[in-house]
Amino acid sequence: MSGKIFAAGILGLSLLLAGSEAAADEPLAAIAKLDLPRYLGTWHEITKYPNRFQKKCVSDTSADYSLQSDGSVRVVNRCKMADGAAAEAIGQAVQTGGPDSPKLQVRFAPWWLSFLPMVWGDYWVVDLDETYRLAAVSEPSRKYLWVLSRTSTVDAAAYRDLLKRLESKGFDLTKLEPPVGLR
Q1: Residue 121: how many CA atoms within 13 Å on its side-chain side?
Q2: Which of 163, 172, 106, 142 is nearest to 29 (CA)?
Q3: From CA 70, how far away is CA 94, in angstroms rounded?
């Protein structure tokens, strides 16, 4: 009997992993539309895939988005480093597509390099709750992932639900750093 249960468990795990791999092979879909003025403001990082440009950040990571007169978005990323010092990166983002597109391009290189395609990176909102309080941001290859919240803490149940949706979109949840601010 226990052998059958074990075999059923292995089969179930295999099907689950196969489903995750299949989703990861499919093109990533962003949310249907983004109300950019509503999205603007401060977002706090709850978790992320580790990346080279945030290596020195150890806590209090946030992003502030504000509309500029030319229609682009000013991006100010902040975090605390291990020595207690604050780090800040200022960039610019532009929506690609129509005015409700959830796909943006962002750059942190100086403005005089903005003509170079390689200084721009994809910033796709791939999950967003209807209250604009919890979001997930990535890019087409799923190499990067951030989970953001309007507050520095997030409801654990809402976070688990978001993770389920991200897994169904092909994200490898084992890559996520331990979350901060779960309540």
Answers
A1: 15
A2: 142
A3: 10
Instruction: Over range 10-32, report the average pLDDT.
Output: 58
Mean pLDDT of all residues in 168-182: 93
Q: What is the pTM of this model?
A: 0.84
| Cα 85 to the center of its chain, rounded Å | 24
Question: How many Cβ atoms from other residues are within 10 Å of residue 182's Cβ?
Answer: 15
One DSSP character per residue, the chain reads -HHHHHHHHHHHHHHHHHHHHHHHHSPP---S---HHHH-EEEEEEEE---GGGTTEEEEEEEEEEE-TTS-EEEEEEEEETTS-EEEEEEEEEE-SSTT-SEEEEE-S-GGGTTSGGG-EEEEEEEE-TTSSEEEEE-TT---EEEEESSS-B-HHHHHHHHHHHHHTT--GGGSPPPSSB-
Strand partners, 91: 75
Local confidence band at 135 (pLDDT 50, 70, 90 cut-offs): very high
- What is the average pLDDT across 113-129? 91
* Cα separation, 57 vs 42, whole angstroms: 17
Which residues lie across from 100 on neighbouring strands?
A: none
Name the residue with higher pLDDT: 13 or 50. Answer: 50
The confidence score (pLDDT) of residue 12 equals 35
| CB neighbour list of residue 105: distance below 8 Å, 6 or more residues apart | 93, 94, 96, 120, 121, 122, 123
